[in-house]
């Protein structure tokens, strides 16, 4: 019996002393806060996107009365054409439920929405959290935005988070682009990270990208993170006339 107890004590001690894996990229602290961001992507029938945006511009106040619109963009390059991307902010999931119920009862909003649904070909949405070390930045002047979507290997931020952060910081610290926000998906494709960048123009973005590719400090940081990368894609985004982020 004493031998059994001694073995059990050693096993428990080993478990207690085992190093805990943490990552500054994990979104646990954000989840405790509750605030999350809904990414909505709309695909429109050919020639119908501008019609929808004009109609939405006249009625967007009905929607923003209930929750914050972070940004609204049309997609200039990357993926399918006739595409619009929105980011909405919610205090928590109960808040989102309340908003959806309120909008369903809002006759003016429904009067806009129902006929305009016919212009939409497809919709996608994801729920994301800002990573703990990143706060949402608002550029001081108008420009263009780039959304880069990274599909990482399974294992979560404890596996790849710190290397990913070092790669991002290499671009930010050296001034190649301005970071707006880094989001980690909670509902949608798991192990997915969205990075939103701002540049003055598509040409300044291209110039910064070419320079960063030749900078050994950036190359070294990125080389480490790509070991955990499955795929990536990007979109060049143009703010709509009613987008808070210009």
From TrEMBL:
Gene Ontology terms: cellular component: mitochondrion
Domain NIPSNAP: 37-135, 145-244
Gene Ontology biological-process entries: mitophagy
Pfam families per record: NIPSNAP
Membrane spanning residue stretches: none
InterPro entries with a match to the protein in the record: Dimeric_a/b-barrel, NIPSNAP, NipSnap_domain
Highest taxon listed in the record's lineage: Eukaryota
Gene3D superfamilies named among the record's database cross-references: 3.30.70.100
UniProt record similarity statement: Belongs to the NipSnap family.
Protein's name according to its UniProt entry: Protein NipSnap homolog 3A-like
Lineage of producing organism: Eukaryota, Metazoa, Chordata, Craniata, Vertebrata
Gene: LOC109270040
